[in-house]
Amino acid sequence: MTPQPNPQTGAAVKAADRAHVFHSWSAQELIDPLAVAGAEGSYFWDYDGKRYLDFTSGLVFTNIGYQHPKVVAAIQEQAATLTTFAPAFAVEARSEAARLIAERTPGDLDKIFFTNGGAEAVENATRMARLHTGRPKVLSAYRSYHGATSAAINLTGDPRRWPSDSGSAGVVHFWAPFLYRSPFHSETEPQESERALQHLEDTIVFEGPGTIAAVILETIPGTAGIMTPPPGYLAGVRALCDRYGIVFVLDEVMAGFGRTGRWFAADHYDVTPDLLTFAKGVNSGYVPLGGVAISGAIAETFARRPYPGGLTYSGHPLACAAAVATINVMEEEGIVEQAARTGETVIGPGLRELASRHPSVGDVRGTGMFWALELVRDRETREPLVPYNASGADNAPMAAFGAAAKAGGLWPFINMNRTHVVPPCNITESEAKEGLAVLDEALTVADEYVG
What we know:
Layout: H1 7-20, E1 36-40, E2 43-46, E3 51-54, H2 57-60, H3 69-81, H4 92-104, E4 111-115, H5 118-133, E5 137-141, H6 150-155, E6 171-174, H7 189-207, E7 212-218, H8 233-244, E8 247-251, E9 275-278, E10 290-294, H9 296-301, H10 317-332, H11 335-357, E11 361-367, E12 370-378, E13 383-384, H12 396-407, E14 410-411, E15 413-415, E16 418-421, H13 429-447
Parallel strand pairs: 3-14, 5-6, 5-7, 7-8, 8-9
Antiparallel strand pairs: 1-2, 2-3, 4-10, 9-10, 11-12, 12-13, 12-16, 15-16
C-alpha cells in the first residue's frame, strides 16, 4: 500500500488525541504521539506519508505483521456470524483457539483459561498457584516485567513497579542470571547458572519453602533486556520447584508464539512449567487476547472446586477467531521457522557485525526475532550509555539515537540503555537488512557519547 499524504486529517487526529486521550506510562503534557494513518506488513506510516519500518512489532505483538489478509478476513467472518457471547458457553471459535494453543504448549498444559491480555493472565496464574498450594508468597526476578495490574505490577522487577508497590503483596524478588552484568561475579555461563540457582534456593530456604506458592519467570525476559538464560538454569528452577512443592510459572506473553523461533521459548530449554501465560503474538494483537495454559495437576484442583476468577470477555469470539487464523497462518506460511532462520542468518550476524564497528555496542544477545543491543559509554567498564531508569537530560544519548533511527525511517524499541530488535516474525530478508542499515547510521550518533 502506498501512503497518501493527508495532513489535515492528521492534524485533527492529533488534536483529538491531545484533548481527550490519557496515555499510559506518560506525563501527559510532555509527550508528542505520532498520528498513524495506516500499516501493512512490517511498515506503518503517518499522515504526511512518511513510512517507518517497525522494529518494535507494536509492543512486540504483531508477530505476523500488520493487516494480514487471512486474519482480517477471519475477524470479519466471525463478526458476521457471532460477534460476541458470554464466556460460560461453548463457542466454536473459543474451543478451536483453545485446542490449537494446547496442541503447541509444552507437556500437559492442555487447559486454557482466556483473559483479555498478558497482565490478567499473570494475575490469574498467580491466583491459581496460591489456591492450588494454599501458600501466600510468589518469587519473581528483579529484571522482569509482568504487567500493570495489581499482582502483576508487584511481581514486576523494573522501575515501573515502584510507584505502585504495596510492599505487602506477598512478592519476594531475586536475581536471575545475566552474565553480562552478573550479580554473582561469574565469568562463564555455567558459573552464572550454578550461582543463580544457589541464590534462588537460598532465597527459598530463608523465605520458608512452605510459604511459597510459585516462582514466576519470563522464559526469556523481554522489556527488561532479552537475556537468554544460560544452559541448565530453567531446568534447575524446575527441579527446585519440584523439590519444594512450588508451582513453576513461565511468562511467555512476549516470548511466545514464534517470537524466539519456536512456538514457545520454553521449547529451547526442554522445560515444562505448571502454568504458562501468553498474549500478544497469540493473534498478533489484532484483537486483545491472553490466557493461562494449565497443567493437569492444577486443573484437577478445580475439577470439583470452583475457580474463583473470570472476566466478562474471557475467550471473546472475535479475539479467538483471530487467534485461530493467526496460528493457522503461522503454520501454513512457516512463520515460526522463518523467524528462527532470519534470526540465525540475517539479524544475529548483522547485529554482531554492527557491534564490531560501533564502540557504543557493549553486548548483542537474542534468538529468532528477539534481540537486544546493550549500549555503553565504555566497553571495558560496561558503563551504560545512560544511567539506570534515566529521564530528561540524563537520557539524551538514547533520545538522540532514537531520533536518528526515526529520521532514517526505522521505528526503534528503546528501553533504558538498550535498543531491542523485535520486528515481525515474517519480516523479509531485504526488510531486515534495510533496518540494520538504518541502525548502522543511528549507532554513529550513539558512538559520539562513548569515552
